[in-house]
Amino acid sequence: MKQTYLLLSTIIFFFFACKQEEKKQMEIFGWNILTDHTPTALHTLESSANYKVNQLQLSYEICHELRDIKHQWNRNIVNNLTEKAHETGINEVLVWDHALYDLKYYPERFTINGKINLDKRDFWEWIIEDYEKMLNKIPDIDGIVLTLNNTETKVENQHSEVLNTPEEKLATFVDSLAALIVKKRNLKLYLRYPVHSEKEVETLLSFLEQIKTPGIKFIANSLPGNFLINQQYSDWVEKIPIPVLIDFDCVHVNEGQGIVASIFTDLHLKLWKSYQAMPNVAGFSLRTDRMGKSSILDRPSEINLFTVYAALQNPEIETDSVILKFLYKNYDSLAVPYFYDAFKLAPEIIMSSFYTLGINTSEQSEINFSYQPSFNHKITLGESEDTRIEIGHGVNQSFRYWSDIVNHLAPAEYKNPENGILSSLPEVDAGNWLQPEERMDTTYLDYILTEKKYALNQAFEAISKVNMAKPYCNNSRTFNRIYHTFNRTLLTAKLRKAYAQVYYANRIWSRGEEFQNEKLASLIKDGLTEIQITSEDIKKYRRKGPTGQYNWAEDAEIAMNLVQKIKNSDIWQDISEEL
């Protein structure tokens, strides 16, 4: 009996010890400040205490590359924020860097045929000395976040007769810098390598295995590549052989950057639940702004980062519970049911206005229905087949991604085998899924307008719910932030519906006389009128929201450029004659 009791006690102790170890592993709760607007950055630091942040990354406008701190402005901001972060209780402050700057940064004696000669020993001595000088200017930081791709001079493309593979070059570069950063200066080193293809995933996993320096960690984007939300989480992250932080774009660079209702509770909940279950994931880093005066803190989109913390505390929590917890924490209880309805509508509004049949028709949120990179993102995540995707938003149809959606929405020149989408996507070329001619037609125009009208109807419904909450809000400033966020969302849905109507109808009209008729002419003319009216409403709108990378009001100017382009063309005369 005594032996049974001891065995049982041992099992129970082992169970709880494992649980504690599992809980200890999730140890880093980081935020990332991109803006060098001091009041915004300081407010972020003040708010961080409410979320028990223990890591702070300083990037983009503050320090995108370590050489930025050679400028006194950047250096002062880094040192100031580092000091204040430490005073706040954040024990790990990191600055961003990129592996290898533009080629002209390095002395010519280290180059050969337009490449850096990695076999020259004095190159490595020079770069270590350069890093020493830069790090001495920011003595209180705790580490570096080193991005190894998305750089002007890629490490793996440089000259070497000793290092035979891209993986060897990357691993050698990391270990060489780590000798200074980690071993000599006792700083943390985090690596970034945002992937855009299966080949890059293979390269990443291979070179990480070859790194010899212990203690290095990796930062992986919560969504592949450029954070487009029509993509899935990266299951290969579990294969990374070192501890991983998950980088969440809580601001939504491609979906309105919090100036509109960039609210994606369900998305962030599902992502963090997936990553949290991976044994190598040690925490997260949350982006809180998108430069300038932008910030999601104290705004509706703060729910995106709140969601990650809610799932951290309770991995079983559901979307509805997260929304209600956030709303009851921040708003008057009697107003919550109405705000809840608006928050629930938000993702569908954004997905059917900023996206068109599943493709992001913007450039870092700025309206752009012909942004070429938007048309080849899905394949870069490993889609080697012309798979079907479901589009709701009132359309409620199943489409083949390449031969249906991309083939119709992409301009003809983007489908040219020589210099368009196909030049970098051989599997699409082999499948013969795209034809290099204009394929936009009235069938797809109807699908698109159905989707845009759906976004508009949902936006009207959301703002009506917000207005219903007004009598129950004691703080007018708090109410106004929600109201103007959703009202800007409504104006955005109006503008993008009108823009889509003109842009795609004009492409059909341009195909020739057999496609031209009175109905199409009316669509173009009515759309132009809608653009002019809505653009004027946007220009006059008194609460345009914070300006960061995305300037919401500039969408009106972009839309008016389309109006002028049509009116200055022969098409305008043809349309007028048709009517």
UniProtKB/TrEMBL annotation:
Query: SUPFAM superfamilies given for it?
Result: (Trans)glycosidases
* Xref: InterPro entries: GH
This protein's source sits in the domain of life called: Bacteria
Q: What is this protein called?
A: Uncharacterized protein
Organismal lineage: Bacteria, Pseudomonadati, Bacteroidota, Bacteroidia, Marinilabiliales
